[in-house]
Structure formats: structure tokens, C-alpha cells
Amino acid sequence: MIGVLRRIRTTIKLFTLGIGVAAGIGAATVATSLLSAQPAGAEERYAAFVIDAANGHVLFSRYADDRRYPASLTKIMTIYLMLEDVEAGRIRFDTPLKVSQNAANQAPSKIGVRPGETITVDQAIRALVTKSANDVAVVVAENLGGSVAAFALRMTRTAHAMGMRKSNFRNPHGLPDSGQYTTARDMATLAIQTQRRFPQYYSYFQTRSFTWKGRTYGNHNKLLGRVKGVDGMKTGYIRASGFNLVSSMRRDGRHIIGVVMGGRTGSSRDAHMRDILEKNIRIASKGGAIMFANAPLPRTRPDQASLPVSATAMQAVPAPRMLVPSTTVPGTLVTAGMAGKPMPLDSNAMVALIEQPIQEQPATEVDQGDTSSDVPELATVSMATAGGWVIQIGAFNDRQLALDTLQRAKSTAPTALASAKAFTETIEKNGETLWRARFAGFDRLSAEGACSQLKQRSFGCFPARN
Predict the structure, then answer these.
(1) Average pLDDT over residues 321-349
(2) Would you put residue 287 in left (φ > 0), alpha (ψ -120 to 50) or beta?
(3) Which residue in 39, 381, 383, 423 has a CA-CA distance of 20 to 30 Å to 187?
């Protein structure tokens, strides 16, 4: 009993570090609320791990070798195998993947692909990174492996070959399956191996939004672009796992990989990840970090489908540049590229040490969407109060993405938007809430002129009379 209480207290300390003080909440109140919100055994879902990507030294570890459910972290491996097939010449980024009835029937999160239609490899990767689309994951598995079972077997074999010795895959998306498990250490191994093997394609994991059939989906990763140095990778959630996250951080010549599993909420998971990244980036080694080739990936504009990608376009460009929000393509980041070769990993640091049975939990929660509610909200106003003419630069299923797009548009065309008022307006479409990103305060000529400037910078835009 004493051992269990110690584990609970450790978990509480890790997840509430810095949060209770900032909010002015007493330690006893925080502990009580955390325990009451978690089901019995919830502390057994928690695990965290931070590794120096330059040399494989472990910087932070909590239950890192205990089995956990990966949830949508699974999709990192699904993408890894797609990139492996691209590299081998078996598929291209413009290769169409056919949708089956089985794929279309998958539980949310999904983009709603329909039987008989196709989605390109490029579009599929973006859908997996942003929306974490389970239907698309099955499309990939069936097209690349022939069946979900065959693809899952390949996933497991690949995992074991790269040192993920305590991982087993039964599906390509991470929906509940008692036979699908991993560890925090194994997830760090996968993240590093993905970056080492495919540096020229890593910026896929920096994708901020994806548009499919006119609907734009924002990335569930709330740290991307908001925490200095964080440049990917993937979120995950099912009830059995709690909230999971794999993050990559590069700062001041240092590079670390962090994994947090079993978060009670998306916000507490993100806060814990920020804490362990900030503390450990300072002690990571300088120099020799994994470098990403500066390869331009195919870009999807909000109103266009992905275009075919030539082999030449995917080659690395030697000139380095910093990772910054794109000012031309809403919802994207510019690739952070630097020349250099990855340092070899310390293989001993990547070997799992402890075997224990996985804690069985009912697989009743299947939605893998991971949205945070702790972001500032722009006052939502009615267009009726805006006056004159307005311009719209997009409609998004993610409020923060709409706000970010408004900010980038403002900085891109400061003259045309100098006196314009940015606002969001919600609408319901097919049972889903969308946020329109709009500017008010124009007459007809100035609205058309502002849209003309924004379109020249690859923003979607149209004027409308109020």
C-alpha cells in the first residue's frame, strides 16, 4: 500500500509541477482534484522519457520501460513505413491509395473518406499528422500491406529491428486493442529513427493544417509553433492510454526527444511535456544533434489538392534556415533545415530492461481527437456587427488555427489590413463547428484590394458584403 501511495504522489508531483503555484492552488487541493478525476489504476498509465538525440543519453525517465497503450502515437510507425516505401521507389507522393468500405467504417477521429475514392500518399501523411485520421490509416495499411493484419505484422517486425523490443502492433491507427502496446522508451526510439532515416521528409511532422474536400483540419499538437524549439511530432489518446505525446525539441545546438504517456487531460500532458523539455534541453549535449535536410515538401493550399511531387523537388537544399511560421501558406511552418550527419545512437540506451504484463482496461473510448481548452479565445462576433464589407481567409475546425491564420495574414499584408478588425464567426456544417477567419472594416474596393494582396501571398480570400 505504501508503494502504491508513493507512486501516486510521484505522479501528482510530475503532473502538477508549476501548475498549482501559477494558479494559486494549494498542494492539497491539487492532489485531491487530481485523484478524484482519475479512475482507479490511472497512475499506471503514466510514463515519461527524455533522451539526448545526439548521443542516446537518458536525461529523464519515469516508468519508461513499462508497457503502455500507444493510441495514435502508432501513426508515427504507419508514416515511417510509408516513407520507407517512398524511399524504395514502391510508391510516390502522388500515388493514389484506394479507399475500401472497411477503411471508411473506422471510428473517429477521421476525415470521412468514402469507398471507391482515392487519396494520395502526400494527403494521407498530412491527414495522419494533423487530424490523426483512423480511416486514412486503414487506407494506408490495406494499400501498402494488402490487409491490416499484414501491415501490422510489418510494423512489429520493423519496430523490433530498430530496437523497439517491447512494442507490438495490431493495427495502423492505435484504436483499442489489448495486444497493441509499447513503452515510452520505444516511442523515443521510433522518433529518433524516423528523423535519422528520413530527415528530408521530417517537416511533414510540422504540418499545421490539412484540407480535405474544403474542410481544414488543425494539428492536435498544441506545443508545435508555441514552445520555442518544438518542431513535431505526434499526439495520441484513447481512454485506456490517457493523453500521449511525443515531442522533438531543438534549441541552441541541442536536440532532445520527449515522451509523455498517460496524461489525465491534454492540457496537463502538455504542461508536463513543457516542463521536462525545458529542464532537460539545458543539460543536453551541444553539437552533433540530428540535423534535418532542408527539403521542400509538397504544400497543400487550403483550396487545392496536393500536386504530384517530382524526385528533384524532394532533394535536400544545403543552405540552412530557421523554423518559422509560414507567412504564405496558412497553418504551416517553414522547414528547419541544417546540414550535417546524424550521430550514432548509444544502442544500450535504447534497450528495454523490464517485462511486466500490460494493465487491461475496457476499450470503450475510441475518439482519438486531442483538443486543448487552455488557449486564449478571440471574441467571437456576429458579422452583423462588423459593418461595411468583410473578407474571409478561411474556415477551420480548430479555433486556434483560425486565430493563427488571422495573425499571419495581418503580418503578411500590414498595409491592406492596417485598419481592419480581425474576428472569428462560428457556423455549423454537417454537425461540426467551424470558425470563419475574417477581417471587417472595408468598403468594396478596399476589400477586393486586400484579397488581391493576400491571394498573391497564397492565402485564400474572398470579399463579402455585410
Answers:
(1) 29
(2) left
(3) 39
pLDDT value of residue 43: 58
Alpha carbons 444 and 404: distance in angstroms, whole number: 25
Report whether pLDDT(48) > 70.
yes
Residue type, 189: T
Q: Is 454 helix (H, G, I), strand (E, B) or coil?
A: helix
Residue 418 pLDDT > 60:
yes
What pLDDT score was predicted for residue 431? 67
HSE (CB half, 13 Å, CA atoms) of 436? 18
Residue 226 CB partners (closer than 8 Å, separation 6+): none
Q: What are phi and psi of 115, to 5 degrees?
A: -55, 135
Looking at residue 424, what is its pLDDT? 86
* Closest residue by Cα to residue 224 from 244, 194, 258, 247: 247
**Low-confidence winner among 129-143, 191-205, 241-255, 298-312 (lowest mean pLDDT):** 298-312
In angstroms, the CA 377 to CA 354 distance is 45
pLDDT value, residue 341: 27
239 and 341 in contact (C-beta within 8 Å)?
A: no
**C-alpha closest to that of 130 among 77, 54, 209:** 209
Burial 379-414 (b: 16+ CB within 10 A, else e): eeeeeeebeebbbbbbbbbbbbbbbbbbebbeebbe
| Rounded Cα–Cα distance for residues 466 and 464 (Å) | 6
Instruction: Give the C-alpha separation, 382 to 361, whole Å.
Output: 45
Radius of gyration, alpha carbons of the chain = 22
Distance CA 98, CA 116 (A): 6
Q: How does the average pLDDT of the chain come out, rounded?
A: 74
The Cα 106–Cα 204 span in angstroms is 24
pTM of the model: 0.60
Helix 74-87 to helix 121-129 angle (10° resolution) is: 160
